[in-house]
Amino acid sequence: FGLLEANENGDMHYRELSHMLDTSIRFFDVWQTYASDSSIWFSSYDYLFRYQNQEITFIKSDTRIREIFMLDEDFYIYQSDKGLFTINNDSLVMAPSGADIELFSSSFLFDNGIQLLPCQYSGVFLYEPSSDNPLRKLHFNDFFENARLYSAARISDNLYAFGTTSKGLLVTDK
């Protein structure tokens, strides 16, 4: 894996980074990348890699990393069979209400400091980790009863679409 960076003429060139890793680290794919103000994060199913200050560090997950997102400057990681985690001092720590969150297929910034989490079996939630009640179920979740939430898309600033495997599509506003 690597990154694109501009040369002295402003032309973009690919710069390989994986050669900086110890040869004992084995992984198949980097499937998500996020940039913060100070670093770039790369995620595989088993590792999170951080490129910062011309160095790569990593965190090994003991279960499969399924989804990741950034909210404000914090990085959130969903681990299979465990829940939602965040990073503190280069370690994965349980996020507020993280054990109550099941697998989600995507997530979207809903509002300042609030993430929209479409969970596969229990519906759609607003996640606000700084709140006293960080996980709030949305009013239309009855629609998802007995239906697996399969896909979700942000259509515009105010519209979201949620697809199920057996009940069709729900389009709703913010």
Task: Based on the model shown, name its key terms.
174 residues; 4-stranded antiparallel sheet; 0% helix
Task: Please describe the topology of this protein.
Blueprint: E1 2-6, E2 12-16, E3 32-35, E4 40-43, E5 47-52, E6 55-60, E7 65-71, E8 74-79, E9 83-88, E10 91-94, E11 108-111, E12 114-119, E13 123-127, E14 135-137, E15 149-154, E16 159-164, E17 169-173
Antiparallel strand pairs: 1-2, 3-4, 4-5, 5-6, 7-8, 8-9, 9-10, 11-12, 12-13, 13-14, 15-16, 16-17
| Percent of residues in β-strands | over 45%
Tell me the overall shape.
globular
Q: What's the total helix number?
A: 0
Strand tally is 17
Q: Helical percent range?
A: under 10%
Q: Briefly note the structural class of the backbone.
A: mainly beta
Report on the biggest sheet. Answer: 4 strands, antiparallel
Average per-residue pLDDT, rounded, comes to 89
Secondary-structure element series: EEEEEEEEEEEEEEEEE
The low-confidence runs, each spanning 5 or more residues with pLDDT under 50, are none
Strand order of the largest sheet: 3-4-5-6
Radius of gyration: 18 Å
Quote the distance from N terminus to C terminus: 37 Å
Provide a quick synopsis of the model.
This protein is an all-beta fold. The protein contains no helices and 17 strands. It has strands spanning 2-6, 12-16, 32-35, 40-43, 47-52, 55-60, 65-71, 74-79, 83-88, 91-94, 108-111, 114-119, 123-127, 135-137, 149-154, 159-164, 169-173.
